[in-house]
Amino acid sequence: IALALKSIDYETIPVNLIKDQGQQFSEEFQALNPMKQVPTLKIDGITISQSLAIIEFLEETRPTPRLLPKDPKKRAQVRMISDTIASGIQPLQNLSVLKQVGQENQLAWAQKVIHTGFDALEQILRSTAGKYCVGDEVSMADLCLVPQVANAERFKVDLTPYPTISRINKTLLALEAFQVSHPCRQPDTPPELRA
CB of 158 within 8 A of CB of 86? Predict the structure, then answer.
């Protein structure tokens, strides 16, 4: 989403987390990302993993449009929301954790984790949101929100208790950068998950 918002040309090289027992475990990919996770970005002669580190690098090297507000309080709110999603929700319902809880428990586990995170996130957003997560400018927090809502939908989470999250997500999905970057529109999205 950050690459699209900042109009940075890029080539996508899909890494299928299921096919071939997980392509992220290949020697070739491990050489790029020792954590064996996606995403990984090669840019400006360096390789960066972890979504927030990638977004922060792009922000520092290509500052237009801004994804972190100038105001320190708003910038802290953006980082708080981003970390709530990227550290407090997403890792707990990703594939490696779901494998550990067992096939029969995966859906219930993912729903519980997302509900717990969204309960907190909805409360936070009530005090920070404008048109988007923090005020009326798209920020790094919004880049974290949309993929997590897509995961919630994939895990059949009832979003009715989360009107602020739902409203912001809907507003963001009207923007082209979020449409072209949506998980259901990626080149390696399985047919049953495509939009």
Answer: no
Same-domain check for residues 59 and 79: no
Same domain membership, residue 51 and residue 141: no
User: H or E element: which one contains 180?
Assistant: helix 176-181
Strands (E), 14-86: 40-43, 46-49
Q: What is the pLDDT of residues 1-50, one digit of tens each?
A: 999 999 999 888 776 666 777 767 778 877 877 767 778 999 999 999 99
The count of domains in the chain is: 2
> CA-CA distances (angstroms) from residue 57 to 18, 24, 80?
29, 23, 18
Residues 31 and 105 in one domain: no
Residues 84 and 125 both lie in one domain: yes
Distance CA 163, CA 38 (A): 30
Kindly state the tokens that stand for 23.
């392509």
Q: How far apart are CA 124 and CA 133, in angstroms?
A: 9
141: tokens are: 């927090």
Q: 156 lies in which domain range?
A: 72-179
The closest alpha carbon to 10, from 184, 189, 180, belongs to 180
Nearest-5° Cα angle at 86, 83 to 90:
140
What is the pTM (predicted TM-score) of this model? 0.90
The Cα–Cα gap between 118 and 133 comes to: 13
Residue 50 shares a structural domain with residue 86: no
